[in-house]
Amino acid sequence: MGIVTGASQGLGRALTRALVDDGWRIVVDGRDADALRRAWGHPPHDVVIAGDVTDDEHRRALLDAAGESIDLLVNNASTIGPSPMPALADYPLDDLRRVYEVNVFAPVALAQLVIPRMPKGGVILNVTSDAGAEAYEGWGGYGSSKAALEQVSAVLAAEHPELRIYAVDPGDMRTRMHQDAFAGEDISDRPPPEASVPALLDLIGGERTSGRYRAADLLGVDA
């Protein structure tokens, strides 16, 4: 059994569909109940739970739905923050706090709940970004949250060598969140999220050691 957060659209939806096609049973969530219903209104699916990953009751509902043995947790739910994205010196702190709540604290909280139910060889996959490793103007809020998530992933991996814990940069994608990051710009040249899915499946179904990976490297393509 697995859990994928942020599965109503974009990479989360594309990855979950591929996992279901491979025979996985998945609990999916999303903040937008209507979008989640549109994405998962028809079989095959297992459990669909609308809610916010920053809410403790919602996280526990995901855990209860997944049961006593959880082989996979994909922390995909994320927020870009305000759009257009402000410079860090002007970033409203309440908005920054929300970015960290979604992008860092919620994945940690879910990991804390899931790890006691995860058998040896279980997988935690945290979706990150090149903005977590590189400094870009305007990306201070989102990028610093992803940098924190990468460190969280590395520490969890050091503390739980029996598990496989990954931070994965899927690369640029043609998604609504990516469009919000480039407000008013044409991003039609970006690949669809489905293009990154084989790289994530390689990690989930393979035997690679814990660490940070780029989808482009796993796929053998130029980023």
Outline the secondary-structure elements:
Blueprint lengths: L1 E3 L5 H12 L4 E5 L2 H7 L7 E4 L5 H11 L5 E4 L17 H22 L8 E5 L12 H20 L4 E6 L6 H6 L15 H9 L5 E4 H5 L4
Parallel strand pairs: 1-2, 1-4, 2-3, 4-5, 5-6, 6-7
Account of the 3D structure:
Strand 2, helix 2 (33-39) and strand 3 (47-50) form a beta-alpha-beta unit. Helix 3 (56-66) packs parallel to helix 4 and helix 4 packs parallel to helix 5 (140-159). The chain contains eight helices and seven strands; from the N terminus they run E-H-E-H-E-H-E-H-E-H-E-H-H-E-H. 41% of the residues lie in helices and 14% in strands. The protein is globular, with a radius of gyration of 16 Å.
Brief write-up:
This protein has 223 residues and is of the alpha/beta class. The chain is built from eight helices and seven strands; from the N terminus they run βαβαβαβαβαβααβα. The relative contact order is 0.14.
User: Taking all residues together, what is the mean pLDDT?
Assistant: 90
Uncertain stretches? none
What gap, in angstroms, lies between the N and C termini?
32 Å
CATH architecture tag: 3-Layer(aba) Sandwich
CATH topology: Rossmann fold
* Spatial sequence of strands, sheet with the most strands: 3-2-1-4-5-6-7
| Global Rg | 16 Å
Count of strand segments? 7
SS strand fraction: 5-15%
Structural class: alpha/beta
CATH class: Alpha Beta
